[in-house]
Amino acid sequence: MEKNFPENFLWGAATSSAQIEGGWNEGGKGASVMDILGGSINGSVFRNQTKEVMPDVFYPSHVGVDFYHNFKEDIRMFSELGLKAYRMSIAWTRIFPNGTEHTANEEGLKFYDDVFDELAKYNIEPIVTILHYDAPLNLANEFGGWPNRKMIDFYVKYCETLFTRYKGKVRNWITFNEINCLLVPFSILTAGTVNMDLKSEDNTDQLRFQALHNQFVASALAVQLGHKIDKDNKIGCMIAYMCNYPLTCRPEDILMAQKEDQIKNMLSGDVQVRGAYPRFAKRYFKDNNIKIEMLPEDDEILKKGTVDFYSLSYYMTNCIGTDETQEKTAGNLVYGMKNPYLEATEWGWQIDPLGLRWVLNNVYDRYQLPIMIVENGMGTADVVENGEINDDYRIDYLQKHIKQISESLEDGVEVIAYTPWSALDLVSLSGGTMKKRYGFIYVDKDDHGEGTLKRIKKKSFYWYRNVIDTNGEEI
User: Fold this and answer.
1) Structure pTM?
2) Which residues cross the membrane (predicted)?
3) Is residue 178 flagged as an active site residue?
């Protein structure tokens, strides 16, 4: 294919601290909301609704894939993969175990110093997410999480510590992972709350939009602070792009898809990129009786705290329409209507490479900001045969999506990074299981915590290494 990936393109891969690190109570780390989320009792997987870690429960995330003790070996393998960038996150509770401390935990700070130094050793650029769903459990229990405005001050202090400590080591920051996921019922993670059952009467649009507003303000303050501490910092937003096509050409379906795109995707982008709530938000709030508590200074904070780049996750597309009898299908934290023209993964996520091109053009037309694709991948139940994992299905998925990134670059879209999910296998977000695997590197661990944690390079590892080596010319 044509050589249209820029020479400085950041080919990478991604993970999150709560899904790979383990060491959940080592090095002075406190408990996060992720540490109580997914567990099992006698092999039965469940989603926790308690306010503390339970002694009789097995939590896979407490060990993760033990990056905490194996980061040097893992980063060496990242170098063998050829990564130019590693999109990762910092565990808030390694830095401030309860979220309320006046002094940061030096052992936690030192751990990430060591990680960044190891990445620098191999010339791998870190792209650091400041909060990837794992807010301190203490803040959830004591303050109710992000619906409470007090969270802003705790978060900004955390950011100030990171920007100051890692000045010169980290240049690319993301304030919140998939911030717009607060707008779907699965919000216990993004809201940083506990006891938030999906069907709870407390899980309301009002509560989630209030939490979202508080995160907008926190993000804007962090952007201003990050620029002040280090003028070389580039700080971005991160949107889980929920692309929904109209199910039919019926005008009602067209309008429904447009409104869904505005609220689920563009609202969060507009506030963080343009620095103000978009005009369509006013009517949505009115029609849905949503009254967000804002302080007089919030408008100015949002205006001054706009981001430097736009990052997104993209896995699949769904359909949306007025015919409720249509078959439903799964997706990244959301469900939608089945598209008859698309195939799907074994988990029901529809595979749509062309949708990525549509999303990239749609976002860039609106914002004209550099775009990072910081999550994109295929979750499957990989099988080891004769010590090998021949994941041709993953290669096919990524190959087709990279082709559409190339087409988007040809369209004039400024894509500057691609970090597929994930660098190595990790604990799944909601269920706490290992069966659904995304990595280029296999990790020998099962849903029950059994396994050696041995790392095995998948077939996709060698394929992606060649993609990077040829800067996208050979895919």
Assistant:
1) 0.95
2) none
3) yes
